[in-house]
Specification:
6% strand, elongated, single chain, two-stranded antiparallel sheet, disordered N terminus, mainly alpha, 44% helix
């Protein structure tokens, strides 16, 4: 009984290619072996049992491991249950001894210290010569743990501070500067323009004295009456002389208002927007 080959293999045989090589279309190679692409894992690949075994050192030392065991179980650091802590500590040390003997040596020293403290606690306390009770065997260990915890917290706070190269980078800009100074060329025309600009600004800040002009409303009331004498009427604008300045115009207008208030003048207008005329309210005899 013969098996019919798939179409890709039949195409490869027709083209004269090796039928044992996989025909791969639009697929990314997993790796390259001696320069050749590898699209599938070899069936005879041997992986040693310990090749993918990874040991992560989660603690920075024996004190760090001991502090972790105490804080995880909410033990009172001033009253450490040595039996439970020592048992858990030795379990961790047994695990790292099988993989990293050099690392385990440091932890074994702390394990020996824990066993010594535990054995001293089993013995009856001895009183000193002065009759005072002996110091707790755990006192030295507690002191070291508290100091280590303070240093660890301080190191954590320092690590939160932004650091150069880790959290930010310093921006640097290189500016090329020539050693010899280069001065611009100035022409005579540019000097003349600069001088004219200085003279122009000097004229703008010249000091001048403003003299106060004495103007009398009564005097201009008389002037207006004299202009109207002998005339039936006079146009409103003819009573003002614009060439003598604003102050004289204001005083003349006030004089007209005063004369109208005293009923010495009549101001009339035939219709809206028509010329305004001024005449005397009485006719002299």
């Amino acid at each position: 009984m013969t098996r019919e080959l798939p179409l890709p293999e039949r195409q490869a045989l027709a083209a004269g290619e090796n039928p044992d090589m996989p025909v791969v279309i639009d697929q990314v190679a997993l790796a390259r072996l001696y320069g050749e692409p590898l699209f599938a894992m070899p069936k005879d690949l041997y992986i040693p049992p310990d090749a993918l075994k990874v040991f992560l050192e989660a603690f920075e030392g024996p004190l760090d491991l001991l502090l972790y065991l105490i804080r995880r179980q909410n033990f009172n650091i001033l009253d450490i249950p040595m039996a439970a802590v020592t048992r858990q500590y030795l379990t961790y040390v047994d695990e790292i001894r099988a993989t990293n003997l050099e690392l385990a040596a440091e932890y074994l020293l702390m394990a020996a210290m824990l066993i010594e403290i535990k054995s001293r606690m089993l013995l009856p306390p001895k009183k000193s010569a002065e009759g005072q009770e002996a110091e707790d065997p755990r006192a030295e260990l507690v002191r070291r743990l508290l100091e280590y915890e303070q240093i660890k917290l301080a190191a954590h706070k320092l690590n939160e501070i932004p650091q150069f190269g880790r959290d930010f980078l310093r921006a640097q800009v290189h500016v090329e500067q020539s050693r010899q100074p280069r001065f611009p060329d100035v022409t005579v025309v540019e000097l003349q323009d600069a001088w004219r600009d200085i003279v122009k600004r000097a004229k703008l800040i010249q000091h001048h004295v403003i003299s106060r002009e004495e103007l009398s409303v009564r005097e201009h009331m008389s002037i207006v009456l004299r202009k109207l004498q002998g005339r039936k009427f006079l146009e409103f604008e003819e009573l003002f002389d614009a060439s003598r300045g604003m102050a004289l115009l204001v005083v003349t207008f006030i004089a007209l208002l005063e004369l109208a208030k005293e009923c010495l003048l009549e101001i009339t207008q035939a219709e809206s927007f028509a010329p305004i005329y001024v005449r005397l309210a009485y006719t002299p005899t």
